[in-house]
Automatic annotation (TrEMBL):
UniProt domain FAD/NAD(P)-binding: residue ranges: 1-268
Keyword Oxidoreductase (UniProt): yes
Descriptive protein name: FAD-dependent pyridine nucleotide-disulfide oxidoreductase
Family: Belongs to the NADH dehydrogenase family.
MF GO annotations: NAD(P)H dehydrogenase (quinone) activity
Alphabetically ordered keywords of this record: FAD, Flavoprotein, Oxidoreductase
Length: 354
């Protein structure tokens, strides 16, 4: 049985790692040379994490587990073939795991800001910080990425850091208790928090808001929101809000599956969050599900662990401080221990591929 896995991020790479060795013949279609741990990008930006902590080369990993690596972008699906930039990959099953793209919401000038959504972008942002010593840094968006980046930059730079959030509190997708705790931690680090503040336009050296006020800045970083990539938008498959809509077995239709950020996983009223935690769990589930399928056995339905109405997360707030969230409960102490746990989880994920 030939399985094409499109996307070698957390979900795609973990699926192959867990499934191998098995009678399935895996082909990984991934344009990058390495698998990357996005959760460590903020620490890389702040000069705390090293490249080897957050990336592992795909070639030796694929050789070890007996998978083929096609270092190309998938362009489209044609029947049971993935059409890539230069080659075509035939499959019995295909798994789509291409992640999500940055959403700029059509706001003028935002495409010209810095982002920490990919390693290349994060490297560019870090180079800018090292070469230009910006004095005023605006971080737009206060989700996990925004608050983690603000904390680490406030700790490592002698600069004024601002977090700009359109909604009424930081981390609006989390409980009010979590937002309060994180806001206090950010303020302690000297981060300026502007909530209920909407960006209208980003200019070369200032940010304009919808109430016609503006703030000067030397560096603007956009962290607010993701959307389905062009590849996903172009696929003629079941979708919800643009994401690939899977059933409780992570199946899209017939021999096609989707996992991780590109999928809309809503099972028994629980919508999966777009997090590494969910991507990894979905990958592990599908690895078992595929091996059951070829043996003609049924598997239980997938169960969502980190859902939008009951978040599970470890949020780092500097290089020695993190909080844990389980549902409505936010565990703020001991911060160092929680940070060590998060750091260990993130780094040990990458070590599995080395
Ligand atoms: C800065 C940042 C911090 C984060 N922190 C945390 C955290 O602390 N905890 C947590 O749980 N989650 C965190 N997340 C979210 C987490 O990283 C994602 O949910 C997770 O990476 C999703 O895994 P994935 O495999 O679906 O997508 P990705 O890891 O993004 O991988 C998708 C892969 O698909 C490839 N690809 C894309 N298009 C194509 C194509 N057309 N053909 C072939 N390949 C393609 C890409 O190159 C990429 O390698 C963070 C995200 C960011 C950006």
């Amino acid at each position: 049985m030939k399985v094409a896995v499109i996307g070698g991020g957390i979900a795609g790479a973990e699926l192959i790692r867990v499934a191998a060795p098995c009678p399935l013949e895996f082909t990984l279609i991934e344009p990058k040379k390495q698998i990357e741990m996005q959760a460590l990008y903020p620490e890389y930006l702040g000069g705390v994490a090293r490249l080897q902590d957050l990336a592992a080369p795909l070639k030796p990993f694929c050789e070890r587990v007996g998978a083929h690596h096609i270092q190309e972008k998938a362009l489209r699906l044609e029947g049971s073939t993935v059409v890539c930039e230069r080659s075509q990959v035939e499959f019995d099953y295909a798994v789509i795991a291409t992640g999500a793209a940055q959403n700029y919401f059509g706001i003028r000038g935002v495409e010209n800001t810095f982002s920490i959504n990919t390693l290349e972008e994060t490297k560019r942002a870090r180079r800018f910080v090292e070469d230009n010593y910006p004095e005023r840094i605006m971080i737009m968006g206060s989700g996990l990425t925004g608050v983690e980046a603000a904390s680490i930059l406030a700790e490592s730079l002698d600069a004024s850091i601002y977090v700009i959030e359109a909604r009424e509190r930081v981390l609006p997708q989390f409980s009010a208790q979590t937002s309060e705790l994180v806001e206090r931690a950010l303020s302690k680090r000297g981060v300026n928090i502007l909530t209920s503040t909407q960006v209208a336009e980003v200019k070369k050296d200032c940010i304009m808001f919808t109430d016609d006020t503006c703030l000067d800045c030397d560096m603007a970083i956009w962290t607010a929101g993701v959307k389905p990539s062009q590849f996903i938008q172009d696929l003629d498959l079941p979708k919800k809000n643009g994401w690939l809509l899977v059933d409780p077995y992570l199946n899209l239709k017939s021999n096609l599956f989707a996992i991780g950020d590109c999928a809309w996983v809503e099972i028994d009223g629980r919508l999966a969050t777009k997090t590494g935690l969910e991507a990894e769990r979905q990958a592990k589930y599908l690895a078992r599900h595929l091996s059951h399928l070829i043996k003609g056995r049924a598997l239980e339905r997938y169960s969502v662990r980190a859902s939008t109405d009951s978040q599970v997360a470890l949020i780092s707030l500097g290089s020695d401080c993190a909080v844990g969230v389980v549902g409505k409960t936010c565990i703020g102490v001991p911060t160092r221990l929680i940070y060590s746990l998060k750091s260990w989880i993130d780094k040990s994920f990458i070590k599995r591929f080395k």
